[in-house]
Amino acid sequence: MGVISRRIFPACESMCVCCPALRSSSRQPVKRYKKLLADIFPKSADGSSSERKIVKLCEYAARNPFRIPKILSYLEERCNKELRSGHVGFINIVMETYNKLLCICKEQMAYFAVSLLSVVTELLDNNQQDALPMLSCQTLTRFICCQTDTTYAHNIEKYVHKVCALARETDGGDRRRQLKASTLQCLSAMVWFMAEYSYIFAGFDEIVRATLDNYDLDTHADHNEGGEVPPHNWVDEVVRSEGRIGEDGSPSSFVSRQCPEKKDPSFLTSEEMEMPKIWAQICLQRMAELAEESSTTMRHTLDPMFVYFDSGHHWSRQQGLAFAVLSDMIFMVENSVNQQSMLAAVIRHLDHKNVSHDPQLKSYIIKVGTALVRQIRLKTAIAEVGFVSDLCRHLRKCLQSTVESIGEQETNFSAALQNSIEECLLETAKGIGDAQPLLDMMAITLEKLPPGGMAASATVGSSMILAHMISLVLISSQSQQVFPEELLIQIMRAMLLADPDARVGVHQLFSVLLSPYLARPKHEISSLRASCLYEPRRWQSIKPSALASLTARLEKLRKGKHGTILPEKHQGNMQDDFKGISSPNEDRRQGFASKNSPNFYRISEMEPYVLKLNEDQISQLISAFWLQANLHDNVPSNYEAIAHSYAVTLLSLRTTNPSSNVIVRIFQLPLVLKNTCLGPTSGTYQ
After folding, report:
1. Which of 30, 251, 343, 663 is most buried, with most CB under 10 Å away?
2. DSSP state letters, 162-197
3. What is the pTM of this model?
4. What is the CATH number assigned to the segment(s) 31-146?
C-alpha cells in the first residue's frame, strides 16, 4: 500500500484530472464551519434568518472551540461589510449569532468575548439608524447577564457613558422609545451586576441620572385623577422673589404612594418590554437591592440621587420626584433598619454644600423627610434616632439666625424652616418606642450648653422641642420611669446660667419632662397621648427674643396621632402652660408677675407624670431652687419659673413616700423665700 500511495496515486492525479476522488483535497478535513456560516445568511437582504441553522453553527462551535476564532473573524468582517452597506437585516443575523453563542457556549466565553464587545462598540457608535444601537444594547445586556465573575467588569464599565447618553436623549417617536427601553434594560443589567458582585462602576452617577430622567411619577400614586402635576412653578418663583412663604404644602399634602409591585424582567409582556418607565422602575428596584448591601453602597446609591434632586429642584411638592423616588425605594427596601438609614441620609443631606445656605431648599427636604417618617412609622417603630440630633442642631441654628436676621425675606424663610423641622421632629416622636436615646441626647446637649447669649437661648429652644418629643413618647407608651440622674444634673446646672431668659426656658423644659400637661383630669389623658402639630408662629418683630419666639410657637397641641382635635378646654390649658414665661422682656418692663402664670392651677387634679423623682433628686432640686432664687439678676419671670418648677416637684411627691426631712425642707423653702421677698432689701420685687 505504501508503494501504491506514493507512486501510483500521484501518477493517476496527473492523468485523471477529472476524478474528484483522486484530488489531494479529498484526503483533507472538510471545513464545515464555512458552510454553516454561509447557511445562516439568506440569499437576499430581505430574507429571514434561520434560527435552526444559527443554533447548529453555535453547537458546532461548542464542540470545536479551536474553530471559534475563525468563525468570529468571519462574523466581524461580515458585520463591518453590511454596516457600510446599510443592510440592517444581515447585521441583525450577526447579533443573533452572538446571542446564541452566549447561551450555548458559556464555557467558551473567553474565545469570543472580545470580538462581541468590539462589534457592540461599532454599533453603539453608529447614530444613523436607531435599530443598530438598540441591537447592541440588547446584546450587551445578555452579555452582562451571562457573567459569573468580575473578569469583564472593566470592559462593561466602558459602555456606561455611551448607554446613559442614549437613555437621556429627549427625542420622541416609537423607535426612540424602544431605543430608550433597550438602553434602560442594559443599565438595569449593569446595576444587577454591581449588586451581584459588589463592584461599583465609576460612572454610577450617570446611571442614576439616566434612571431618574425616565422615572414615572404617577406609576404608584394613590390619587391624582388627572395624572398631571399642576403647573404652579411660576407662582413659586414670584413667591420666592418677593420673600414670602409659598404654600408648598405640608408633608401631608404629598401624594401618598402605593407599594410598587416588583417587576421581574423575565415575566414582562412584549408591551412592557418597550416601555422605558418599566425599565426605569427595574433600575430603581435593583438600586434599592444594591443599597441594602452595606452603608457604603447606601451612600453610593443615595448621594447622586440627592445631587440630582438639588440641581433639578425636585424636592418641592410641585416637582414631586424626590418624594416619589425615595418613597418607592423605602417600599422596595424591606429591612426596617435600611429604611431608617435612608431617612437618616436624607436628613444628613441638609449639610451638603448645595443645600446648607438655602433655607427654602432645606425646608423642602425636611418636608420630604417628614412624609417618609410617616410612611416608615406606620409599619415599624423608629429605633434609629441619630437623625433627631441633626434636626435639633439645625433647629438651634435656625432659631439663632431668626433672631439675628435683618430682613423680612430672611426671617420668613427661617420661620418656614423652623416650622418644617418642628413638624418633622414631632412626627418622628409618634414612631419612637423608647425614649431613653432621646433622654441621653438631651443630657449631652445641655452638657455642651453655652453660658449665655443667643446661642444658649437657641439651644434651650431646640431642647424644648426635644422635651415635648420625650413626653409624647412616654405618654403614648404609657410608661413611667425615674428621672435620669445625668439629665437632672445638667438641668440643674443650666438653671444657673448667666442669661435670665435662658433660665426661664430651662425651667419650662423641666416642667415639660416632669408633667407635660398641667391641670388635666385623669380621664382626659387618653386624648393627649398622641398630640401634636403646633400652630405656626406669628412673627411680630424682626428681632424678638429667641425663647419668646419658641414659646409662642409652642402655644398648644392640637392635632392627635389619628387627627384628633383637642377640646377647647384642653387648648386653653395648653396655653396656660406657656403663659407668663413667653415674654421675659415684658415681665422685666412691668416689674411684676402675671396673674395668668402657670402657678395658678388646682393641685387637687391628677396629672399624667411621665418621669418621676426619687427622694434624693427632690432634695437636690430644693437646694438648686434656693441657689437660683438668690441670683442677683433675677426678674419676676425667673421667680415665677422657679415657683412653677417647685410646684411641679411638689406634685411629684404623690408618687413617692418622702421622709420627714424632705417634707420639712419643702415647706421651709417657700417660707424663706417669702421672708426674703418681703425684707427691707427686696426692692422692686416686693
Report:
1. 343
2. HHHHHHT----SHHHHHHHHHHHHHHHHHHHHHHHH
3. 0.78
4. 1.25.40
